[in-house]
């Protein structure tokens, strides 16, 4: 059995055990430090480092672009295709580089684009990107969309099981056309955040989304509009009806802010923005929104 010993003055560990130790450390978030130990350790942990591609600032995004896509780099474009499985775009700049990186990550399983600049800067290129098939993509989260193309006919949607979008009646580029939802034959989980509406939970819109969804839909997570006051949300009979499964047994209400259990005794999922980011970044958050929603629906059906 091969052994690994970074410090010749200490007893060598079997190489397979050393590799597991470093890989676990990389999974826990210490991958960058581990990669600096030696070339061999770097070869073990780099596939883990590149499994999650998080583009949260322009400098980091451009550095990642140079590392993986610059012709002079030791990495090839196939490296991202081979290893990247999760990607998040949460940057106010760097749209061109972000697009190039995402196109190289052809085997993504989860993608979150939380940057309006991604769409505003790229426009036609963003449309081209959404028309590109991602055969392995199952989870997609969007806070914006390409102007005049708020539909689900693009190839990027075709294999999704989990979809998270924002619907904003005050912004033309975020008024989705829900009729095409029925074409997403694999969709089982749908999450919609409402903005700029006249009430916390417009019932006609909720019904339209649910009835437009494919038969495969199992969970619908509804995020009430926070343009109305917090007390209005708590007092909304529409929200209460959704919480209690009266509108649809699959519909569950979620909130970014804690609800007072003394004032509001209906089941609500509470997740902070940082927790949602961690989940879409591929980090462990315990029970994510989807799992909590599934549990609420199961409990309803048992009662």
Structure description:
This protein is α/β, with parallel strands linked by helices and 303 residues long. Helix content is 40%, strand content 15%. It has helices spanning 15-35, 39-49, 58-69, 77-83, 95-104, 116-122, 124-130, 203-212, 230-235, 237-243, 273-280, 289-302, and strands at 3-4, 13-14, 52-55, 86-89, 110-113, 139-142, 162-168, 189-195, 219-223, 251-255, 269-270. The strands form 2 sheets. Strands 3-4-5-6-7-8-9-10-11 form a 9-stranded parallel sheet, with helices on both faces. α5 links the parallel β4 (86-89) and β5. α1 (15-35) crosses α2 (39-49), α3 crosses α5 and α5 (95-104) packs across α6 (116-122). It is globular and about 65 Å long. 33% of the residues are buried. The mean pLDDT is 79.
Question: How large is the radius of gyration?
Answer: 22 Å
Distance between the termini: 57 Å
* Helix and strand sequence: EEHHEHHEHEHHEEEHEHHEEHH
Structural class: alpha/beta
Low-confidence stretches: none
Largest sheet entry: 9 strands, parallel
Average pLDDT metric: 79
> What best-fitting shape do the alpha-carbon axes yield?
globular
List the total number of helices: 12
The tally of beta strands, per DSSP, is: 11
